[in-house]
Design a protein that fits this description.
Length: about 325
Amino acid sequence: MKVGWRFADGSDSIPRPELGKIGRMKRYIMNRVACCLVWGLLCTGPLSADEPFTYAPVRDFFQLPDGLGLGACTGVDVDSQGRIYLLHRGKHPIVCLDPSGRFIRSWGDDCIVTPHGLRIDRNDHVWVTDIGNHQVFQFSSNGERKVTFGKAGTAGNGIDEFNQPTDVAFGARGEIYVADGYGNSRIVKFTPQGGFLGSWGKAGKGAGQFDTPHAIVVDRQERVIVGDRENDRLQVFNANGELLAIWTGFAPFGLARDREDNLFIADGRANKILQLDDTGKVIASWGSEGPGVGQFQLPHMLATDRCGDLYVGEIKGQRFQKFARQGAPR
């Protein structure tokens, strides 16, 4: 994209003979100012919303083939192409759909025992945590298994072991954070290549301790936000595991961030979705317990797409729902 002034004859510059040295300098400055103004408008935006969002459920969005029934729906995420990945406890546990909700492919029976969390990284790799096998898998978008962390069927607390890991998050430089959740109550950090960088946390109710670190995200400030589910709180850390804040008042089963870094919680006990501001205050809440459209039966994990729409998986409801953000550009 070429940015600058344009004149009536369609040109974007004046022939040099008509400009002296001072004129050329003025011309250069004007072009630079215009360039900065235009790119500033294109590339900047608010880090978080000043007002709460509203959503409307999208009926009959997910189109699954005959014979592919959903079990407990535990994880969901959306890649850079808008493809939607569903994780459930049934046959073909990983299901890939196109942006309109139509089925593309499914896989995972050969290695996943009890699926729990699903995340997409910046390279569109699909990461799945398996609490039955005590492992974390990385797949390509086509379903090819690329990387495996942990020892199959073996629970442990070593640097290459997990005990029912629940979720995965990614740092600004590709670092991998694993919520090693039900058994070890810790966060484990790895390099992008899988090298061990450290861990923090232990079982308990004190600051920096966990009772089921169930979900994890990393925001633009490189804060590591952990859903400390059974302690009914979020704990916020820096990238080295130093505690920054504790936000209370909800049961964070699932966590998701949108493109503007707004934070959403699936509160499985309240059967609600919550929107939080940058300080952990709830600024919007919707949903109630029930099987109806827009209601929830234990919402577990959730995700956002490029339009800000939400996708929510339910354990007891055994379904996924899509919610369209109202007023968002399509």
